[in-house]
Amino acid sequence: MALIIAPVLFAASTFFWVNGEYGIAAATFGIISLFFWIPALTGLFSLLKNKMPRYATYGLWIAVFGCISGVCFMFLGYLTTIFNISHSAYLQKLSEYPFSSQLLLFATGPLFPLSLLILGIILFRTKTVAAWIAILLCLGAIAFPASRIPRVEWIAHVADVLLLVPTMAIGFSLLKNSKTAIQEKKSNLANDKI
Question: Where are the transmembrane segments (predicted)?
């Protein structure tokens, strides 16, 4: 379910940008979406646990840190809106704390889309998912920073759709497979009782 909920909430957040900034509504949707992105990423990386166990573990670890950085960015937008702090004013203030600002925001911000890009490439190379799913995931990962850094809304909507379609396709596929597995277990239990 997280593979469906996370990108839907993330896409919804973009509709609430205020002059290219995360305001109260956009930040709220975005933070909740990133809460769901963590189990969604866990599911995506677990697709590779048999083929590439080390990458599945360490890649997930880096992707989760990217989610945490995303939460920091969105919470920053939330607070700057509440306290009516301009973009230039908060950037100037953040420059006074270069190490923590880089660690929590600027240097780690690209980890989320970079993780998705590498994941998409590996899913494609290992043929773990259909090629079109892996390609869309890669395109979404590339479009993500291209929209979020300059804060161009139409590119952000494109990036959101490019991430939404493949993750939802995987999510629905996993839900279908789990329902089939549950039905088979019930059938086997019924046969065992007979």
Answer: 24-48, 60-83, 103-124, 129-148, 154-175
